[in-house]
Amino acid sequence: MTRATKTPKLDSVGAEAVDDARAALLDLVPEGDVGEHLSSVAESGKVVTHLFECSKLGYRGWRWSVTVARAPRQKTVTVDEVVLLPGDDAVLAPEWVPYRERIRPGDLGPGDLLPTEEDDPRLVPAFLAGDDLDDLDDLDSHAVEAVTDELGFGRVRVLSAEGRELAAERWYEGSHGPEASIAQSAPAPCESCGFLLKIAGPIGRLFGVCANAFANDDGRVVSMDHGCGAHSEVRLGKKNLPTPLPEPALDTMRWEDLETF
Ligand code: SF4
Question: Residue 223: pLDDT above 80?
Fold first, then answer.
């Protein structure tokens, strides 16, 4: 059950102290920046806020707010605070968004650094990172390094299942997935294309890398059910072949022939 909030009663002495409020305001800001008295708002008990129009350039819709208070059984007010507040139609800056939420692919320039959080859920520690391989002989050491590198254990952190899932979703739903318009009208999917490079690991069941220099997706990860008109097995049908040129017309007339006329 919600309890109805009681509107505080406007203190009459505080409400009449418009001149005191304006004087306190003019102690702090130039007279030209202060406009009409707009309203008096009861805050609580004997506390009243007076709002004045702000005529400062660039502050359309903002209001000077001067709060006055009166002690019990006193006939004069004291000034609590003077602030500039936005009104309903004030021009405000858009809500601030932390850079981490603002950053988009392509924002990173040469030399820029974008550190990843220690607890980034897209990454997990690679448990064998930093293992001392000095105790193994050369052959064993190379064999272990090859396996750990292949599995991603040669790095401090590797992609987590969540990181892999997020990447797969992003790639699948983007312009390199089956919904892309180029894929919708493709003659066959990437899965059967000779230009598709296979990716190792579980993600390789869904994606590969396009290696066709003439395809729009060259060098990009594409889903198996993506596709394009540069598929390796595309052949032109009769209706796609260029219209044959007419027989050439041979001009047999030579200079000598002309002279005989
Ligand atoms: S050429 Fe086209 S069909 Fe072949 S892999 Fe690249 S995008 Fe897929």
Answer: yes
| Nearest atom in ligand 1 to 232's CA | 4
Ligand 1 centroid from CA 149, angstroms: 29
pLDDT category at 52 given cuts 50, 70, 90 is very high
Please indicate, yes or no, whether the overall pTM of this predicted structure exceeds 0.70. no
Q: What percent of the chain has pLDDT over 70?
A: 85
Q: Which atom of ligand 1 is nearest the CA belonging to 228?
A: 2
Q: Where in the chain is the domain with CATH 3.10.450?
A: 12-86
The single-letter code of the amino acid at 183 is A
Please, are residues 68 and 48 in contact by the beta-carbon 8 Å criterion?
yes
Within 6 Å (CB) of ligand 1, which residues are found?
190, 193, 195-196, 210, 212, 215, 217, 222, 226-228, 230-231
Q: Where are the beta strands (DSSP E) in 134-252?
A: 157-159, 196-198, 207-210, 221-223
**197 close to 220: Cβ distance less than 8 angstroms:** no
Determine if residue 255 is left, alpha or beta; phi over 0 gives left, psi from -120 to 50 gives alpha, anything else beta: alpha
State the DSSP H helix or E strand holding residue 12, giving kind and residue range, or none if neither: helix 12-16
- List, in order, residues 6 or more apart from 233 with CB less than 8 Å away: 188, 192, 193, 194
**CATH class of the region 12-86:** alpha beta
